[in-house]
């Protein structure tokens, strides 16, 4: 049974001086038409045929059989799929029972032009006024899927219209198809050959439409050259990202592309040489450069510098690769990354993935998957008896197959029920005061700064974070001068820090922070005020490290000191398209 995102059929109809015609449809069924003729033919030509209605057979007949369109004759399809000229160049959608016809009727030439009037006087050749390239879908197809197929119909129609005006390509192909129809119609009825089968050997356009249908059904990708001149490429995200292990919603993928950051990396899902060979000959040289220079260890910012391209251009090229299912977004592989098994990982030891893994690494996949059953930093996987290079290749393979997901730590600022009278005195230590909440941190204890050129709030100025009480901007201009190296004499006064906290925290949140014993330390309070815009559960630790140019140990120490008001949880990054719940 075919996928719900695959088309049931592709149909080309036209309207002109010879009326409404169905030029081509694929797939076609010769056997089905013969069965209908046999059922309608009575055994005795002189017998009176009486139809008896069975109450049990009152169910509506389906127009879908084996994933293909059935039950519609060529004449009926030509009548319902051709439109008036006033409805051309608009989106077309028609739902009948359990099927939906989508396309975009295209006007070949304005009927008022001199070209049409002169051609109409020439009775030797038929004149085509409009045509409609229609894809047949399930009636339950969602709006985004319908839009994708309408977009594909528009692209193909514009290419055909261009070639028709340039050299009369569509008219020539239509004459070839109509000639085949006439030839088959003149044959005896017992032969019953399909005209569409003969068209595939005579018409280049028919073969292109067949390739489009087959590519969409098998891979979700269409790539054809109309008249060997205009290239039309199309990617159906519903099919490309509908994998055996998981299904990715197109809206989720769009949000993932918008969440790409400079600290991310691109992981190719196909072999580099094969990917380069599949690229069109006239593709952008920058895309080839990005593919050759990218590694799972290199961030997009580093990739931008190595490729000598603007970071915005790198984002566009990487997003293009992700959209076409040729790459995915990850955080650069390092020892502090926390990986865990994907919920879609197959556990059957006889699956093809297990055999492929054993052939590649000479290890049992079940044993390796067991090692990643709990979220643990990669550097702590000492039970893997292999070299660091082999461990890196293994992690890359597991990420490419979507068997592993990376967990990041997100921090939430909460309010407590501690009254101001319960505030700790300056001499009271955190050991002597019982915290109402605990914080569990699973991460590498030591790690250097991620980015030595990070600027405060450079990317997140236009992003807003919503809290229960208010919404606040993440612009950190007021904290840009709060350096940990500044002494109390040169730093901001305590009153200035309190004013800054008041600009970003509600009164209850500010009160909860100030009763924490660590708030009595000016340096700790400075760092908290600097990082508090990130404590809304929207930014993970690696993102904070990148934009604020702080190391992991500094953030861990701060989380431990303010654990009464900070709670951490782990989940995937929003840029990973496999994750839906936290987008």
What does the model show?
By secondary structure, the chain is of the alpha+beta class. The chain folds into four domains: 9-42 and 62-240, no CATH class; 250-330, Arc Repressor Mutant, subunit A (Orthogonal Bundle), CATH 1.10.10; 345-401, no CATH class; 409-571, no CATH class. The chain has helices at residues 30-40, 74-81, 114-121, 143-167, 169-185, 195-202, 204-218, 237-240, 250-258, 272-278, 285-293, 300-307, 311-323, 352-361, 365-371, 388-400, 494-504, 507-514, 522-531, 541-548, 552-561, and strands at residues 9-16, 19-26, 64-65, 68-69, 92-96, 99-103, 106-107, 128-138, 221-226, 230-235, 265-268, 327-330, 338-341, 376-377, 404-413, 464-466, 471-473, 536-540, 566-571. The strands form six sheets. Strands 1, 2, 5, 6, 7 and 8 form a six-stranded antiparallel sheet that branches. α5 packs antiparallel against α6, α6 (195-202) crosses α7 (204-218) and α17 (494-504) runs parallel beside α19. The longest helix has 25 residues, at 143-167. The model is unreliable at 30-41, 55-59, 113-117, 119-124, 419-492 and 579-583 (pLDDT under 50).
Alpha-carbon Rg, integer: 32 Å
The whole-number mean of residue pLDDT values reads 78
Low-confidence stretches are 30-41, 55-59, 113-117, 119-124, 419-492, 579-583
Could you tell me the strand content as a percent range?
Answer: 15-25%
Count of discrete alpha- or pi-helical segments spanning 4 or more residues: 21
Taken together, the total number of domains comes to 4
The major beta sheet can be summarized as: 6 strands, antiparallel
What proportion of the residues is helical, as a percent range?
Answer: 25-40%
Give the overall silhouette: elongated
End-to-end Cα distance: 32 Å
Structural class: alpha+beta
Number of strands: 19
